[in-house]
Amino acid sequence: MTLLKAEALSYTDRASPLVQDASLTLEAVSLVMLIGPNGSGKTPLLSLLLAGSGICRLLGTDIARIAPSHRARIAAYLPQSRPMVWPQPVRDIVALGRFAHGGAPARLSLRDHDTFDEAMTACAVSHFAERAADTLSGGELARVHLARALATKTPLLVAANLSRRSTRATRMK
User: Fold this and answer.
1) Mean pLDDT of the chain
2) What is the Cα–Cα distance from 26 to 60, expressed in whole angstroms?
3) What DSSP letter does each residue of 122-163 carry, written as one string?
4) TM segments (predicted)?
């Protein structure tokens, strides 16, 4: 099944084309990595996939026609820059991954709790669930944001510049 199909994606930065007429098709249950040198347009291309630029179809529907709340249940985006400046408990940040499904941090259903716990365990962040996010190291914070994205349980997860360090730690646990 085709999960995402994008055609004619383009992005220009300071009159310099970084992405020009790019196309791709992602099938369900696949892992695709976009590799290239710094400044080559990888992150803008990933952003274009979910922004509806060019011709983008998510599960066969034009992405521009999908309501943001519904799109959030189909596709999660983990941006390259993920600042955290307030002392929110880690558990609340991960619980935000269930928001598109109707779950709020204080009102998670049993299913939301199971999904939340699974994401926390997969990213090895359960042991600091009560810790304030603004006290975490960069690698710990990256794992928390990955857990939040995994908690969405979307069929598509687009992650920009997920560091090798944070993915290695997740696999080792």
Assistant:
1) 82
2) 12
3) HTT-GGGTTSBGGGS-HHHHHHHHHHHHHHT--SEEEESS--
4) none
pLDDT value of residue 173: 34
Q: Are residues 80 and 156 in the same domain?
A: yes
Range of the domain at 171: 74-173
Are residues 59 and 102 part of one domain? no
Supply the pLDDT for residue 168: 38
- What does pTM read for this prediction? 0.79
Dig out the tokens for 69 from the structure: 């709340």
Query: Residue 18: what are its φ and ψ, rounded to 5°?
Result: -100, -35
Determine the Cα–Cα distance for residues 62 and 158; give it in Å rounded to an integer.
18
- Residue 161 in tokens: 């510049």
49 and 120 share one domain: no
Strands 75-78 and 156-159: parallel
- List Cα–Cα distances, 114 to 61, 64, 104, 119, in angstroms: 30, 32, 14, 9
Residue 60 amino acid letter: G
* Whole-number pLDDT of residue 105: 65
**pLDDT tens-place string over residues 92-124:** 889 888 888 776 666 777 888 888 899 999 999
Count the residues in the chain: 173
